[in-house]
Amino acid sequence: MGMDPSLLIQMIGAAIGGALLYTLIGVIPGTDETAVLAPIFLAFALLGMEPRVLLCCFISAIVAKKLTDSIPVAVAGIPGGVMAAPMAPHGVFLKSKGLPHVSIRKMASGSVIGTLVAIPFSLVLAKALTPLAPIVKAYVGPIFFVGTIFLALMTRERWISLFAIIPFAMLIQGLQYLYRGLGAVPEGKSVFISFFLAITIGPMILSMLELLVSKTRKNLLRSGPKEISLAPETPIKGFPNPFRILSKTESLSAIGGSLIGSAAFFMSPCGMTVLIGEAFSSRIKDPIKRACRAVSTMDALTNATYISGTLVPLIALGIPLGGMALGPARPLFEAPPMFTIDHNLHHILTYSDFAIATVIGAAIALMITYPIAIKYARRTSEFVFKHISHEALMSLFFALVVMLAYRDTGVIGICGVFLVAIVGGMLNRWGVHLGIQFMIFYCSPWLVSHLV
What we know:
about 75% helix; about 450 residues
């Protein structure tokens, strides 16, 4: 596929749009990465966005989102997303010591290093793993089943995670047979979009439905408008240099964590962030230095695991292998009828297409979002907290989910979304996180067929 000037302009425009949009979304407290990325890019894919433009926009979006979702941790003690939650205790500690500006700069600089390390490493690793693609694809069912068990064993709530595998797989496949039996989908076809979106919005749906339960509603905390104290901003001149903001040991820790996180692309990003971040910082005696090491390493890890978790399976395999590929990046692998497991970006783009789109998307996001995160963190947070409604944003995503589910299987598909979302939301609350649920979803055809 050639690279003409008009396509390059589209890629740059999409990267700028993705960076600006997800810079703001990243600052909004409590936004789940899968919930704010997957539905939007699923819609883009279904609308027929050019594959290289889609990838460029996606890379820009995840780099920008990961750069800014730690800002609320530093300025207000509130995580901007699920992946920022492990950094919350360290960010709150630094804020209590009057060092929120230090926390922001350490996090953002770690994120930049994670991006700079992950892109070349992921491209090289993907190239090396490409010859293994036929072997992996031949045993994709068993591989995902083993991966599901492995992820379940890695979580804190391992026993309920293991117990949930077969029942949740049977629920999904049972609905597949129901849809085919009622004629909602043709015989031999499988539903993907509805179940993918249902798992994505499960925690949100459960929280909303709990408002209808009188006993639960009475126990909810009631108060006036929430007051959030934002820390003051300290000026910095010129374009910030991450290697000057971080100490030598912090830079080395961020690089090391990024390499490990990139190599473990098939693992849960959140699990790797906690595991490696704490391992690299726990032995430091000085609490301030320990917190700075932790937040810089963890932020580097989050960006590295998101980038490698997207690029390596996409370039080398063409199947969503791992938590990132099964979650936020899933529309790049499967968005029927535009993309399927047998025809997605892996089959459409060349290796150079992947490299160019990734570099352009990441470079534009870093140029736009990194200075904003370093210089204007307080003002950005203040604007988002005052003028962007979290509830309105969630309602927008919910409406998009309903529309896509209806397009997939009609009214019965919407009902199926609610059923899977309620069960998935409850499992998530019990500790069966979304990464495991996506793994169960993907291995469910093979697993259920072998139960007979």
